[in-house]
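> tool_call: predict_assembly(chains=two)
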Amino acid sequence: MGRQVAIVSAGFSEHASKRSDVSMPELINEAITDCLKNAPSVGFEDIDAYVNGNMPAFEGANIPELWMTDWMGARNKPLLRVTTGGTTGGTVAIAGYYTVTSGIPGVDTVLAVAFEQQSQGDTSVGLASVAYGEISILNTLGISFDQLSRLLSAGAAIGVAAYQATTYMRKTHITEEDLARVVVQNRRNAAKTWWTHLKMPDLTIEDVLDTPYVQYPLRYGMVCPASDGAVAMLFTTEEKAKDMCDIPVYVNGVASVANETAVLGYDGSGSAQLDPSMQLGAMRSSELAYSQAGISFPRKEIDYAEVYSPFPNQELMWVEKLGLFEETTAPQMYQTGVTALNGELPINCSGGVNATNAIGASAMERPAEAALQIMGKADNQVPKTVHTSIGHGWGGSLNLCTLMVMSDEPQRKWR
Amino acid sequence: MEKVGIVGYYQVKSYLDANYGRYEMIFEAVRGALDDAGLKKKDITTVISCTNDYYDGRTISNCFTVEVGGGYMADESKVEMDGAHAVLYGLMRILSGNHKLAVVWGGSMPSAFPYHSARLFETDPTWERPLAYVNDITSTGFQMRAYMEKYGVIAEDIAKVAVKNRKNAAKNSLALAESQNSDITVKDVLDSDIYSVPVTELMVAQPCDGVAAILLAPEKQALKITENPVWITGVGFNQDAYYLGDRNLFESKSMELAGKTAFSAAGIKDPANEIDTAEIFGTCAHEELILAEALGFAEKGKGPVLNSEISGDLPINPSGGAMSGNVPCGTGLIRVIEAAKQIRGEANGYQVKDVNKAVASGQIGMCAQNNIVYVLEGGN
């Protein structure tokens, strides 16, 4: 049976649209240095293994962790690379958990690193390759090339997100104002966290609604930025964690359930395309992770959530799908301040992906910030005590999902 | 480490240009492995895939392989290294106690992409890539020359390894047809075209299309699923420095360290005598010798003296090894399968006598920068 895993520390690099002052390895080194600074008793000699990941096609470097070996202090140490697109960060964090819990020979302490330096390449081109593969299928169905919005709907982020937004809006009868409200909360929160990208302390709903559409209903002001950045997390066993930090954060549940691909499949399959806001994968992930962590009433037992939402409609959708709120009630919660910093269930107090999106790192920044909230070390710390928090990730073609449940109590009693 | 059982496997035959789609290949492999174990899709709790976005030519390529790989509504993830590293992640997931049956599949189709161009993207983009002087082809030449000069090994000794592997591959029905040759001689190998001096074409494991899948289960479940599971009793993995100048290319420090960890976990003190056969992923003939020496099967520089034929003292790569078909993202996984076959006595035509303990290895990077090694054992 697996060992109890604890998070000891988390660290970030500075995020910006162009970190041209550093190379890719220097960027991850920044995050690792920050991570080790937060756990002063830990040195490179204490790290037994590494887990690493990013989205390689965005920067034009394949398996870059080979080249980055020395910038991570990984020379002659075990290293595993996992990548799953948008969920890469979550996948890296989960692989860090599994590396510790499995008790494989000689490994107790694991450093997990996720990063992206999008300014080195072209993300849109990278994402388009997700879509282009399906062009032939769209063509067969009589959808022509010039209908760009439909073309993009085959895979690239904004296309599928717009579909998702309209289906969600139809179900909940919300307006663009409700979407803008989520953006305002996120970007004001981001202003209080040092490493974030879009810091907008004075943003208003009107400002957001004043920007042009990228694709209905998503406006320019609602869409996440493209950032350069890295994040690092330190996982270790329960015993060692007590010597390494004051408040270890225990990882009590992890899941990464895949749904059907949200494109028109070869045989017309792909029901996720009919309602991309259904998200069976996220629902199943939360079911799995909560049962591992012994959570029966997520709304009551979870004190803080970081969800992966490059687009505001997704944030509303995820908090429902992850069982934090009843279906279709999320917009109300944002309106009444339940999700604000001093609310009952604060969400994305780091500003979330909507304010900072270094793609490969984003899904790991969620559990990292959620862990810091439990430790009481987050920059934008919530006033209430956080006992249990979740960090969520989304990716693929709307079909991948990662979830990590963390707590200040070990999970042992539930096993 | 608790032991984990390999309960089923399947390898799609290797082709230089497989005349069917990637998704069909993946489906065939995963379905084949499930059939081998007599299981159904609903029994899968976790799926680990191994592909590479550059090799597949599209970003997030793994999000399109969910259904065919058995990952729909299963806890799923992807490793972007060698197939053997994917087995490691599957192993970890089983050891965690969260999962009861893991599917691990890996493979690629180099017929659909320029393999060596994709490998060029692995090099340091600032100093090495613009000149393209250091790449996966030239580095094999540096490595072989370093090995020959350090230990006074001659090219004939290294060609013998290629001869052995290609003759073994001829007995392996799943091997790449182009690699099979039962009449090959040392002269043929040395006279073939230059790949990167002093490496010749026939010393190199040729990239080819293929997919393989393996099923892992915890001890209790494994014994219920099959009567003769193969146990993974030890594993070690390690990464060397990146720059070739920072390493001694005539040896493999990462494999030495990985081997040490794996053997101590499996309680093996004298690998050369206790191991019955080994499946080693060497991209070239000389690399097999370097890695075998690093694992302690022979003293450094004495690899060529080792009798590694199927009937020899310590048979290495009885299936033909990577030379029987180098499937990017799949070769290490196929090595694990071949080692398991030897233990189960299912290696038709190239079975080694009385195998109880076997070793399988995988690698990625130039000159085997990152190595992983498994100890497999038979018996209930």
